[in-house]
Amino acid sequence: MTTFWSAYIFVLTGITILGLVALIHFTRRMPSSTDAEETTGHSFDGIEEYNKPMPKWWLNMFWGAIVFAIGYLIYYPLGNWKGLDNWTSAKQLAEETAAHNEKYGEIFARFASVPVEELKDNEQAMRMGQQLFQNNCALCHGQAAKGYHGFPDLTDDDWLYEHSGAGIKQTIANGRMGQMPAWGETLGASGVKIVTEYVLKLSGNAHDEVMANQGEVIFSQMCAACHAADGTGMTALGAPNLTDNIWLYDIPDQDLATDITITINNGRAGNMPAWQDILGEEKVHLLAGYVYSLSN
Question: How far apart are CA 288 and CA 55, in angstroms?
Fold first, then answer.
């Protein structure tokens, strides 16, 4: 931090504290005579305000708070002042992480030697894995792992990528970058419409048969490379199965044809972050075990 901004913080903080001291000092009791029944001159709805001092315990509480604040500012950093303890949030995090690893490291190491698929049979492993999930994954996938619009349901049998312990662990560790290009400009409105009808046909939904047959030609040329010729998808690419009537971007209470049209027209870009550097190998392994258990 530059000297200017450090000085600015010190001056502003000092003015604030002095202002509070002055405020408490000069409002303890308004200038008064010896009349115990003197009022402040304020009156509301016939009720007058007497000029009485604040209770001493209340006043001392304010003074104590100010003294505590000054001590706090001396002990902890402010501006370029490092504080008597030389405390930093990074240092505290490192200390807490080291203490956590010392306390639980042996447990994580023990579970790391167990295959992901077998962790689901260990009650302690599942409790720890669930806690990791709640702290890191529930924001997107939900507390019950049921997913939301654009975030996969982890409790069913429909998986974009390989549904195995190794596949799940790879997904958590390295993240995923699902990318479907936008086809609106390439196909035009009519092209998007007939491909939509064909996708509806693939999934067994109501469709226009003539338009679906026309869309099949475009699908085989533009879409089959990722979704396969029969529309069953490719887990190696994260391309979804279009025949099972399970939709990642289906908006509730909105017509399915509209959802599919939006996806084809604008494309989709799903991004799951990599957790390897954040959680470490052993926690990723344990978390993979818990996610695997959700659908097994």
Answer: 60
10-residue averages of pLDDT along the chain (296 residues): 90 94 79 65 82 81 94 92 91 92 91 96 96 96 93 93 94 93 96 97 96 97 96 93 94 92 94 94 96 94
Sketch out the chain's domains with CATH numbers. 1-22+48-85 (no CATH), 102-175+274-294 (1.10.760.10), 178-272 (1.10.760.10)
pLDDT of residue 33: 53
